[in-house]
Amino acid sequence: MSSVLGFIKRNYRAAYPPGPRSAPDNLNSPKIRFGILGAAAIAPKALLIPALNHPEVEVYAVAARDEKRAKEFARKWNIPKVHASYQELIEDEDVDVIYNPLPVGLHYEWTMKALQKGKHVLLEKPSADTAQEVTAMFELAESKGLVLVEAFHYRFHPVLQRAKAIVDSNELGKILNVSATLVVPSGMFSPDDIRFDYDLGGGALMDVGCYTMNFIRYITSSDPVSVNTAVYEAAKNPKASPETVSKVDRMFKATLSMPNDVTATIHGDLAPPYRLGFIPNVDITAVIECESGTVEIYNWVSPTLYHTITITQKDDKGKKTTRKEKAYAFGDPGQGKGEDWWTTYRYQLEAFMDRLKGRQPQTWISKGDSVANIQWIENIYQEMGLGSRPKSTYVHDS
Ligand SMILES: NC(=O)C1=CN([C@@H]2O[C@H](COP(=O)(O)OP(=O)(O)OC[C@H]3O[C@@H](n4cnc5c(N)ncnc54)[C@H](OP(=O)(O)O)[C@@H]3O)[C@@H](O)[C@H]2O)C=CC1
Ligand SMILES: O=C1OC[C@@H](O)[C@H](O)[C@H]1O
């Protein structure tokens, strides 16, 4: 009963967070002003709601291709300033940070333009279509002393760090295999969603697959050494040309070799067939198999809602014992800030602001991490025979 109450309380507070308690050390300094590129569906969850509870953040402006749409979005979310174009937004001198939740194929162009204008960027995942573009974005950010991060929100949540700590403690011995699955229910995205558009950087491996790739690399603290198998099923988009739609994977599955004889499996699906023709198919499970047991994380991507870490240990005689853990907040205050109702996005915003303010973020996603992640996604697309998503046609003029 208490866990049901906990579930309700936690998720109510995540959706309707209380106002900030206080600003850490700069009560009198102005808030950092964020501007949003596009009236994107993810913006409320990823930024607007978490910002309500961050003492240093103001979501100040939004731009959309259609000004009317931007105005409606701004009214709904109490955003004071509306811009009629993305260009106008990045030129707004009152904006400090650009949140970029555009389709992946537009990430490079608008991140480069925003950085060039001196803005920090919180960039949605996956960071861009190619490793070359990701490298260029980070190099520009570095040269200008600006913060740029790929918004792998799930990495900022305590549950991931707890699962990794269990594995790293060696209590279950060496890792043998890591598998990460992110299968979202059919019907979540319409056939003409950006995720099914090749020219916009679509594909399940890009969208849900970037998390699974990131997960296996994070847990093993390493990059793959080879792609062993890679299969996919193509998406069906009635509006797309037969030539481009055949390059968009609705479902992917790949096996990889990691260093030290570790193997990895990743699997994702944006529209899985219903079970028995009517039961929605969902799978958000990651399993780390070790020499003497397993660690399984249920709901590793949206853990605030609900999650479990199941640790199964085998003794010398093969007898199994199981314990379950949860980690909605960091175990001890020195480990990191937060409350059990903080979403992955709220933890992420905390780290972003710490970095921007010159404080030590609890954790971070580095340039090397983002570059390697997309490089290995490109390698899998190569193995599938589909090739990388198209490089941006935008030419950066420094
Ligand atoms: N961190 C997370 O948990 C999640 C991250 N994402 C990422 O965020 C991004 C946006 O996803 P999501 O919010 O679901 O997508 P939406 O389709 O809701 O938003 C994309 C936005 O891109 C703009 N846009 C610009 N050009 C185009 C174009 N040619 N076609 C379509 N849209 C265009 C639109 O802005 P306008 O308003 O100007 O028309 C639209 O609002 C993606 O990069 C995705 O990978 C998505 C979901 C979850
Ligand atoms: O968190 C997510 O889950 C569903 C995906 O399609 C989305 O893009 C992703 O970021």
TrEMBL record:
Among its keywords, does the record have Hydrolase? no
Q: Where is the Gfo/Idh/MocA-like oxidoreductase N-terminal domain?
A: 32-149
Concerning InterPro entries, the annotation shows: Gfo/Idh/MocA-like_OxRdtase_N, Gfo/Idh/MocA_domain, GFO_IDH_MocA-like_dom, NAD(P)-bd_dom_sf
GO molecular function annotation: D-xylose 1-dehydrogenase (NADP+) activity; nucleotide binding
Q: What class of enzyme is it?
A: oxidoreductase
Q: Provide this UniProt record's keywords sorted from A to Z.
A: Oxidoreductase
Q: Which Pfam families match?
A: GFO_IDH_MocA, GFO_IDH_MocA_C3
Query: What catalytic activity is recorded?
Result: D-xylose + NADP(+) = D-xylono-1,5-lactone + NADPH + H(+)
User: Does Transcription show up as a keyword for this record?
Assistant: no
Annotated EC: 1.1.1.179
User: Where does the GFO/IDH/MocA-like oxidoreductase domain lie?
Assistant: 161-295
Q: Its family?
A: Belongs to the Gfo/Idh/MocA family.
The name under which this protein is listed is D-xylose 1-dehydrogenase (NADP(+), D-xylono-1,5-lactone-forming)
| Classification of source organism | Eukaryota, Fungi, Dikarya, Basidiomycota, Agaricomycotina
